[in-house]
Design a protein that fits this description.
Elements: H1 10-21, H2 24-43, E1 69-71, H3 77-95, E2 105-111, H4 119-131, E3 139-143, H5 145-154, H6 158-167, H7 170-173, E4 175-176, E5 188-189, H8 191-200, H9 203-213, E6 218-225, E7 230-235, H10 236-241, H11 247-258, E8 268-273, E9 279-286, H12 302-310, E10 315-322, H13 337-366, E11 369-375, H14 390-406, E12 408-410, E13 423-426, E14 431-434, H15 450-454
Parallel strand pairs: 2-3, 2-10, 3-6, 10-11
Antiparallel strand pairs: 1-7, 4-5, 6-7, 6-9, 8-9, 12-13, 13-14
Helix pairs in contact: 3-12, 4-6, 4-14, 6-14, 8-11
Length: 455
């Protein structure tokens, strides 16, 4: 028989309320909520006074860096100019004997977002370097976590990659704002991340990137202009090559912006000057909001420009490293707000990644390029205990290292998370091979082999 609920007297309720009212912790908590609510009321009705007006989004510039960025969602004269200049520099470097292979071949690398799974790409690049046949990439692109790895991949700083992705945990990257975070622009403060990036991005580091830029190589990073709801591609190598005194600040800002996951990390405000001569700011956040991978804007006339500059067709290969699994990962979710919202976003991103891979594969095919990619293998089932778990990052790094050492890459993008490719491409022997071992169970009706991606 069920017990009857115990009757609570009115005096007991009043005593409990009085006791809680005098609790120092609850008093502090109430004061913080009240302070945050007052600040929120004072600001919610007024937009950012310094925000760039919509009428100026096509004409505002960053003084000294007018050609260092372009929209990522449309082929513009600015990006065309960037591409022509790049190819002209590649040809000049080839004719001067600095990079002779540039006349006949080009290798490109795109590194995806993935949050705390960025250690996988770091491992792939390290293992690939140890293997000894990692090419010199003409262009390296990065989004979010991939944006933080891209500069080091660009100038072959493998030891730095391993250190950054395996030795630094959440406490090195951000600090919780506590209750105040709910009434500010993000739950966490990323001052620590800013300091960490600056520790590695020194003037010597930027000089090395600038030197490669002059040979025609390009380092590109994607951010999302949240005001405009549009992608922005930044030529980080051009920023480095500007030799302006503020180049380091802008370089670091863009890297922070590309990895500024809305809500978790604060947006980055980029100072611009409008056609009226006044200063405004643009709000930039994680590039992964609009795309997990980036290479070139849609409809970019790559072959037309290549023919114009090189007078011939080069052998082109686009490599993609996806910091995540492509297949579905079952996990019974707690029926609570935060777990449900987190799982929903993770699922959305998984399907966005598939779409991005298909888009890049079609872009490669249209431009007569070979398309190869790798992702975290299905056989890796370990889960992190917390966000930016260093032990988990080390495991991911070692898995990536083995993938890089293997020399095998997927050659056909999946049509959905449940239809993964069965074949990989062996770089050493230049042949398609079946997946074996732990990954043998992946099924797919999609035809495999290099021809599927390149035509």
């Amino acid at each position: 028989m069920n017990e009857m609920p115990r009757k609570v007297e009115g005096w007991q309720i009043r005593a409990e309320v009085e006791a809680r009212r005098n609790d120092p912790f609850l008093q502090r908590l109430a004061r913080r909520f009240a302070h945050g609510a007052r600040e929120h009321r004072n600001t919610e009705a007024t937009p950012r006074a310094s925000a760039l007006p919509e009428s100026m989004i096509e004409t505002a510039v960053i003084p000294g860096y007018e050609r260092a960025r372009a929209w990522g969602d449309i082929y513009t004269p600015t990006f065309e100019e960037l591409l022509i200049k790049k190819n002209q520099q590649v040809l000049a470097a080839a004719e001067a004997g600095v990079a002779p292979r540039g006349r006949v071949e080009a290798n490109f690398l795109a590194i995806s977002g993935g949050g705390d799974k960025g250690a996988f790409a770091a491992g792939v690049l390290t293992g690939w370097g140890e293997r000894g046949d990692r090419p010199c990439f003409e262009t390296v692109t990065g989004v979010s976590a991939g944006a933080l790895a891209a500069p080091f991949a660009f100038i072959n700083r493998d030891m730095c990659l391993e250190q950054i992705y395996t030795e630094y945990g959440a406490g090195h990257l951000y600090k919780s704002r506590g209750v105040r975070g709910f009434f500010s622009d993000a739950l966490n403060d990323t001052t620590r991340l800013d300091k960490l990036i600056r520790h590695y991005v020194t003037d010597v580091f930027l000089d090395q990137i600038a030197e490669e830029h002059l040979k025609g190589r390009r380092l590109l990073v994607l951010t999302t202009n949240l005001d405009a709801q549009r992608q922005v591609i930044w030529s980080m190598s051009q920023i480095a090559a500007s030799n302006r005194p503020d180049r380091r600040d802008l370089f670091v800002k863009v890297l922070r912006a590309s990895s500024a996951l809305p809500g978790l990390f604060p947006p980055v405000h980029i100072d611009v000057v409008g056609p009226d001569g006044r200063h405004y700011d643009e709000m930039h956040v994680d590039g992964g909001v609009t795309a997990e991978l980036v290479f070139i804007p849609p409809e970019t006339e790559v072959l037309k420009i290549e023919d114009m500059v090189f007078k011939t067709r080069r052998q082109r290969t686009l490599y993609v490293i996806q910091n995540g699994k492509l297949g579905p990962e079952y996990n019974a979710i707690d029926a609570k707000l935060l777990p449900i919202a987190t799982r929903a976003v993770q699922t959305l991103v998984k399907y966005q990644v598939i779409d991005n891979l298909l888009t890049l594969a079609m872009t490669a095919k249209r431009n007569h390029s070979r398309f190869l990619f790798n992702a975290i293998p299905p056989s890796f089932t370990a889960r992190p205990r917390r966000l930016f778990d260093r032990a988990h990052a080390r495991e991911l790094f070692e898995v990536g290292r083995e993938v890089g050492r293997s020399g095998c890459w997927y050659s056909s993008p999946p049509q959905s998370p449940t239809l993964l490719p069965m074949g990989k491409f062996d770089l050493a022997n230049d042949i398609a091979v079946p997946i074996g071992g732990d990954d043998a169970g992946i099924r797919s009706p999609v035809a495999t082999g290099l021809a599927d991606a390149t035509g």
